[in-house]
# Entry
Amino acid sequence: MTGERRFTVRGTNNAFTCAHCGVEVRPLSNGSVRNHCPACLHSLHVDIQPGDRASDCHGLLKPIGLDQSGKKGWVILYRCQRCGFTGRNRAALDDPEQPDDWNALVALSGLPREG
# Structure
């Protein structure tokens, strides 16, 4: 992806209802765009590039793994249940209003939960 410019379309950091579990999801307050449910970590395939909302698929993105990036911290790995697209999104553990559920991230990682 060298040379590609990543951008976020203004007005895309909106509240939504999770299509998987029904949680009311609030926008992020840290200047980024929330694209997944902080409770179950599912998302919708609405972007081609992060934040552009240009995909016509709109299939359910199922969290399939967890990665650790030195720059981004924890990153959730996804696969679209409709078209097979795979993507990544930074976990929102630092959001003061509605952070991602730590236990959901731990379960996704395959690590044993703390007592």
